[in-house]
Amino acid sequence: MDNVFIERLWRSMKYECIYLHALETDSGVREELGRWIAYYNMRRPHSALPGRTPDEAYRQIAPTPSAACDPETVSAIPLASPPSSGLA
Fold first, then answer.
1. Which stretches make up the Integrase catalytic domain (predicted)?
2. pLDDT tens, 50-63?
3. Domain segments of the chain as ranges
4. Which of 9, 52, 55, 64 is surrounded by the fewest CB atoms within 10 Å?
5. Which of 28, 6, 5 is nearest to 17 (CA)?
6. Comparing C-alpha atoms, which of 26, 28, 59 is closest to residue 41?
7. Tens digits of per-residue pLDDT, 8-56?
8. d(CA 63, CA 25)
């Protein structure tokens, strides 16, 4: 598969988010990128999808997920806990 799609995503992210904000902390970067990715997927129309958002295009071809699988209702997956030393 050609990586033209991911290269376009990175270009958009740089020009529409990263270059426009003075992001100084890791948490600030994560927060701003999270907001931009949500905007990119849910609100930003794409010419490759005849003016639709990726979210609209996906929902048009995919069945509606149950509430338990909806991304807005699923909590973040916790990272693995460090292994215990076995000493109690």
1. 1-54
2. 889 989 988 888 76
3. 4-61
4. 64
5. 28
6. 59
7. 889 999 999 999 988 889 999 999 999 999 999 899 998 888 889 989 9
8. 39
Residue-wise DSSP of 27-73: HHHHHHHHHHHHHHHHT--BTTTTTB-HHHHHHHHSPPPPTTT-TTT
Please give the Cα distance from 63 to 70 (Å, whole number).
12
Query: What pTM was computed for the model?
Result: 0.60
pLDDT of residue 31: 93
Cα separation of 40 and 9, whole Å?
9
The answer to whether 38 and 17 have CB atoms below 8 angstroms apart is: no
